[in-house]
Amino acid sequence: MRVLRRKAPHLPLGPDGHAQRKARMLIAWFVLVGAVLIVMAFSSHLVQRLPLSPAIVYLCVGAATGRVGLGLIDVDPMHRAGILELLTEIAVLITLFAVGLRLRMPFTWAAWELPVRLATVGMVLTTALIALAGWLLLDVPPAAALLLGAVLAPTDPVLASDVQIREAGDRDAVRVSLTAEGGINDGTAFPAVMLALGLLGTHELGAFGWRWVAVDLVWAIAAGLLLGWWCGVWVGRTVLRLRGGGHRLEYEEFLVFGVIALVYGVALALHAYGFLAVFAAGAGLAHAERRGRVRKDAEDDAGHSSRLSSFSGQCERLAEVAIVLLIGATLAWVSWEWQVLVFAALVLVVARPLAVLAVLPRRRVTKAQRRLMAWFGIRGVGSVYYLSYAAGHQLDPAWTHTVASAVFLTIAMSICLHGVSATPLMERYRRRRQPKDEPAPRREGL
Questions:
Q1: pLDDT tens string 71-114
Q2: Interior/surface letters 304-337, b for 16+ CB within 10 angstroms, e for the rest
Q3: What is the pTM of this model?
Q4: Which residues contact 8 (CB under 8 A, 6 or more apart)?
Q5: Domain that holds residue 407
Q6: What residues pair up with 230 in beta bridges, in sequence order?
Q7: Is 193 inside a domain boundary?
Q8: Does residue 262 sit within a domain?
Q9: Separation of alpha carbons 247 and 261, rounded Å
């Protein structure tokens, strides 16, 4: 990412020139993010009335300040993959912990059946359908098509707050399933990514794939879930004991970053999937509080997890601004060829819906609920992370630009289509299911 001189953007620069360019980049980026945050803070009540999500506003601002617009920022995602990987990694971690905190569900198969189906079998089918579309339309090798499918298959908990649960106690099947699916499949997508990288020759799979099965599939998933759940439950019980003994935690919000950093670091050290571990930690912390509370009043029921969820939700929206602005700036870089456009449309209206409809049991959900869950997916901050992560494995430049263009164009289309349709579709769904005297939930700001 760099600031461009409109008249001579490619002039050679010495050491001082590079330092000046870096300084201008930082200035432009901080000013842009700061201005967007202030404007959205003052106008959030107006945005809430519009039939679109705030992410669409961020996307348009990012595109307007990119190379096709004002020319302030030029983002080449493949050359700046390290920066994008770090930013999206932080955003996804914060969101996964927040999602886990909001999912105060009993630890039973009946409660978790739908999201587990979506995040496992559903995601495998989605990956296969996307890979098939990429292989047929984009003229990329089969392994590269598999990587494309693995990158785009996981749904995004960062940008999908308008179709997810907003508070503890929400038991709506659509919101709960989409929320839990986004928390789980941002980690379960890793085995497919690692398999694709192995087939491309940049990751060790072992003889007949034994290492991929034993380490990348079984161990990394199981260890991540168990580690995160144990740490979350332990932290939750410790907090409850301290509160029960009359000790007030002055810096309780520190638990958000503390638990995320600790669990993620230990998971990486154990070669487990850190995304799954952080999600499980949030869910374990909320579970420990729900099981350990003494009083039944509403205030105690909210407990520390509601305050942590509110704090992490604010951090989540701040990260959303920075990431979507970057995604918007990349649109000047992608290839707007008809094959890429058709591929993105197929991913959104064919691959995801067919996979979801195939795995959701009719006995558990209505036709309207199946259609909503089939439509809402992608959005893509997690996809940007996986693409950036894969870019660090020396991919073949012959097809890298095509794959990256397909990823970013699909994400942009998803942000627009799902962002515009989320409010009217969810509002119509709510009116059909909600009693007339019950007030409608308010949309969140920023």
A1: 677 777 887 788 888 888 988 898 888 888 888 777 788 888 88
A2: bbbbbbebbbbbbbebbbbbbbbbbbbbbbbeee
A3: 0.85
A4: none
A5: 79-433
A6: none
A7: yes
A8: yes
A9: 24
